[in-house]
Give the backbone structure.
Amino acid sequence: MKEQRLHLPKPHGLYHPNNEHENCGVGFIAHIKRKSSHQITTDALEMLSRMDHRGGCGCESNTGDGAGILTNIPHDFFAKEIKTLFDVEVKQGQYGVGNIFLPQDDAQRTHCINLLEKAIENEGQMLIGWRDVPIDVIKADVGDTARKSQPVIKQLIIASADGIDNAAFERALFIIRKQVSHDVRADESLSQALLFYVCSLSTSVIVYKGMLMGSQVLDFYSDLSNPEYSTYLAMVHSRFSTNTFPSWDRAQPCRYMSHNGEINTRQGNYNWMRAREGALESDLFKDDLHKTLPVIETEVSDSGSFDNVLEFLMMNGRSLQESILMMVPEAWQNDDNMSPSRKAFYEYFSNMMEPWDGPASIAFTDGRYIGAVLDRNGLRPSRYYLTHDDRVIMASEVAWLMLPLIRLKLKADCALEKCFWLILTKEFLLTTAPLKTILPHKILIKTG
């Protein structure tokens, strides 16, 4: 009988699990004025289903390399579920929800749950409870390989302690996830340690993903077909694990980004981040900073490594846009046409962070902002569209949705080395230029 594989192979020969790369399909839909609707969710999943050709599959055509969707947390949906299951009233922004992959083995699963609940208590937050995520492997026609390696999927719901703001609560959720993830995955006594994975744990966004084809995600996760699952942003991803192994945890979206392409500087980026950890300081985490280390977790792909660093920068007080531009800079050194203020921006941050070079197209969001960027190699096509009904749509493909031309207000390519993003409370697009000119990095360089 063939041995069931519940983890990636160990390093051997020229293979190492830390060298996993991806080449995939990515896109998002968002309403500029944060008007929520189930249509945003269903349109994003339609886009995802049209990216099956960008995802990989195994020897079974119904076992995918990975696919998923990231949305803002639909408050009305979860408030109703939490009230029904736990008889608890929750306010938006004062509770966190996360989809958690857990071991199949009962004892190991209980151990992981106990570690999470202990970490919640240690960080002074309040456990509301665990919700079984409704799934349907039959309706989704999930292949045998994906079924046999499937983790148990539960939702962890946490209430914030009294008297702390949203940013402090997000940092507490970050510490809870980082500590438990490190403790579990470093525990060699757990044969199913790599089945444990926190897809997301946040007050703003949530990720549903798995070792699926894009066309299977809607039928697999029953929440997504519920008309009350109403969102104003949805990011999707279909994974092709380039010469590497698929797994449930390496499906995307990651916690704050999705990625088409490869991060070919990943090993150097990893080495530099590890080298800095001994000298790191944080005004926000203070003496708890060690609980957030290592920055880059074990057994993650190039995309997962990028997401780890992006999240770390944001949790330490940097904005999403600033963090992205630190990690994915333009080729600025010899550009005589670039303004001095933009050069100052990049020169300042080049002392802190090496470029994460692709070729790569990266979509990113924190629930308030959403956008996309091409790295300076510019070899991964991306396009975005604005519609007259105030939606922005970005994709690595064309023909992702059948929209009449009359509904299109603007269409454009994501230009080489350029980035666009939206504040999802306004009515206009922001580009890179305003951010780079208003930050006083030339002054910072001169004064040290």
